[in-house]
Amino acid sequence: MVKCYYTxxxxxxxxxxxxxxxxxxxxxxxxxxxxxxxxxxxxxHHHEVGENFGNTFRVEDSIIKVRYDxxxxxxxxFGHLYYKQPFSHYHLKFEYRFVGRWVPTAPSYTLLNSGVMxxxxxxxxxxxxxxxxxxxEMQLLGGLGDGKPRPTGNMCSPGTNVVYKGILDPxxxxxxxxxxxxxxxxxxxxxxxxxxxxxxxxxxxxxxLQYSKPQIGGGVVNGYDPAVKVEGKLLSSGFIALQSEGQxxxxxxxxxxxxxxxx
Length: 263
Description:
Layout: H1 2-21, E1 28-30, E2 40-44, E3 57-60, E4 63-66, E5 79-83, E6 89-102, E7 113-120, E8 136-141, E9 154-156, E10 160-164, E11 167-169, E12 173-174, E13 187-194, E14 198-203, E15 206-216, E16 239-244, E17 247-258
Antiparallel strand pairs: 1-17, 2-5, 3-4, 4-17, 5-16, 6-13, 6-17, 7-8, 7-16, 8-9, 9-12, 10-11, 10-15, 13-14, 14-15
């Protein structure tokens, strides 16, 4: 009996140790709580960090809404809503849809156009007159209803470059292979970002674009602090931001799986 007791005790202790040493599985976390944007930071061109000019970013019906009803002339007031902390290796999921109106005084290319910025500089490092953050953008486009293809989930590079198909590609925007999505339907976007290595864009479950080695370089960004724009610096982490550039758009169900623990 004594021998059996100690054998059983040994088995139980071994099982307990094995259980405690088992690595914890990463969990999906909601970046947007469906109630407010208190965990987010606004930066709009011509305005100081934290000033939500015109109530551009607002929450209604568990949706982050980008609206311009309190604007006059758009005046290149491109805006971004940044989550409060940076990330490096992660899987991001979100849903978006184009709604409402486009501001006619905004540049014509912003029609049915928005985006999710990532590996972005800290908004606190952006001067008042900096137009775009130094970042990589998963560009979101809506179909124009003319029957012509207009893919979404593209890559644009304000102040950055990426390696695409094995070469450092200075092209500002690289098209994805996605379908065209017309109207105000919800579209599911995903980003899998592995530090300064591979980046994958996914639209409605389909992989539509891959590239690697995101790094600082190139043009497009204006009014930046030169100390921040270090040419050739690989971007292994940064902030995630939702874009406003003249088209009304909705975002919801923004979730992240932090993969840093698996590195």
